[in-house]
Amino acid sequence: MSRMTVYQVFIEVAKRGNFSKAAQELYLTQPAVSQMISSLEQDLGVKLFARQSRGVSLTQEGQVFYQHIIQALDQIDQAEQMMQSMKDLQSGLLRIGVSDTVSRYVLPKSLKRFAERYPHILVQIASGTSQELEVMLQQDQVDLVIGFQPQQLDDYDFHCLLVIHEAVVASAELASQLNPVNDVQELNQVKLMMLDRKSGTRQRIDQALSDQGIDLKPDIELASYELLAAFARESMGLAILSKEFVENLEVISVPFKLPERPMGYYTKKSASLSIASQAFIDELKTTWQV
């Protein structure tokens, strides 16, 4: 007989003040109820009930025990209700780590649909560089990260949502004057804008160009992807950006290749995902049709 059952029997006897009535209510035999109460008293080393000819009543120790058991069972009931609520996605917490680029171009569409379906789920969003996001994930500060594929996959389960292609882009006005660019030297004669060298994206671009023997010298370096795109739209120069994310800019044909990178979501291999996290991942897959 489980301890929980014994406590429920104890509560019923205390309420009814009678072993027989408690047994009838619980669909047990009177001897079984009496035996459970006697065993409980023996385990605790105290008398919980005073036996009388017309029934039983709680002793002083029994009254104290009764109050604590009532509170404990109520907390257990609340915990079970909370688990059911989380299972039904009526409550819960979703913690997402995203890069600045993802937070602007990838996250809103999926998160909007998720929030509409599960309005009671609390969503917390942390942003940072790729390295910072990996640290957050390792330290369990976020449940999953949406971003570019990590360079080291030993500790992560990565799932690609789309492939991002870097490209040289310009405003329509500038593109009409330059497109196509047939020689790298032409680029060095035009104002060129790129992300700063601290950016992981910039480092991959530099490496891809270096592998092709190309050395581009940008005139403007920016830490902000949004600001870089804004400058390009104002015809301040050419920019290297992800063509999937640019708006009101045209791709310039150039005589070299720029890197492409898988973008998706990843989790720790050892992690057990919450129900809310798994539901959001399902939404990501639906949104991006993967």
Give helix and strand order, one letter per element, not per position. HHHEEHEHHEHEEHHEHEHEEEH
Number of helices: 12
The rounded distance between the terminal residues' Cα atoms is 49 Å
Strand content: 15-25%
Flag low-confidence runs. Answer: none
User: Quick check: average pLDDT?
Assistant: 91
Shape from CA axes?
rod-shaped
Based on secondary structure, the structural category is alpha/beta
Largest sheet: 9 strands, mixed
Using DSSP, what is the number of strands?
Answer: 11
Name the helicity range.
40-55%
CA-based gyration radius: 32 Å
Question: What is shown here, in short?
Answer:
The protein is of the alpha/beta class and 290 residues long. It is 48% helix and 22% strand. Helix 1 (3-16) packs across helix 2.
Provide a descriptive summary of the structure in words.
- This protein is α/β, with parallel strands linked by helices and 290 residues long.
- It is 48% helix and 22% strand.
- The chain is built from twelve helices and eleven strands.
- The protein has helices at 3-16, 19-26, 30-44, 60-87, 100-105, 107-117, 130-138, 172-178, 184-188, 200-211, 225-233, 275-288; strands spanning 49-52, 55-58, 93-98, 122-127, 144-148, 156-170, 192-195, 220-222, 238-242, 250-252, 260-268.
- Strands 3, 4, 5, 6, 7, 8, 9, 10 and 11 form a nine-stranded mixed beta sheet that branches. Strands 1-2 form a two-stranded antiparallel ribbon.
- The model has no long low-confidence stretch (mean pLDDT 91).
Secondary structure layout:
Blueprint: H1 3-16, H2 19-26, H3 30-44, E1 49-52, E2 55-58, H4 60-87, E3 93-98, H5 100-105, H6 107-117, E4 122-127, H7 130-138, E5 144-148, E6 156-170, H8 172-178, H9 184-188, E7 192-195, H10 200-211, E8 220-222, H11 225-233, E9 238-242, E10 250-252, E11 260-268, H12 275-288
Helix pairs in contact: 1-2, 1-3, 2-3, 6-12
